[in-house]
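Review form for a predicted model. The reviewer records the input and the model, then writes brief findings.
Reviewer: anonymous (R2)
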Amino acid sequence: MVFKARAKVLDDDDISRITRRISHEILERSKGSRELALVGVRTRGVFLARRLADLIEEIEGGEVEVGELDTSLYRDDVATNRAPVVGSTKINFDLSSKRVVIVDDVLYTGRTTRAAMDALMDFGRPKVVQLAVLIDRGHRELPIRADYVGKNVPTSGNEKVKVSLVEVDGIDMVEIGEDVEK
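Model under review:
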């Protein structure tokens, strides 16, 4: 299968503006960066979390802790995937009393977010857990909503949203399209 883009939703300037806005929203709602930690969901959520942390540090000063979370073994569909590819989780700080923002690229069914919350609880009990996403495409299967949304992108069930980030893909861009046979 190959992704065939139908439309570009965001370019690099859009993504830059969105991450700056979300960083301000996080600071405003958290009343500063004290006790704040960002945990990115592998893979692209990790890079978005790092970008947000850099922006928050630039605005507020001080360091924001960033963790990386792999949800592979916490997914409720792991039984349908015989050999899940397991990445690493790196949370090298105490979550207790932290305001943790889980960061992901796309919110769709809510299943990855539920898995991320389950995985996070294995590392401690945060004071507050919030969710920041670059794209919210709707079609929820679980009662989950993001606290911080870059852009709402209504899609049909057969459409795909492809997020490309320079750290992984060499370009910052979000496209809508579909997977087609090669």
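Findings: Helices lie at 12-30, 44-60, 111-121, 166-169.
Further findings: Residues 12-30 form the longest helix (19 residues).
Recommendation: see findings above.
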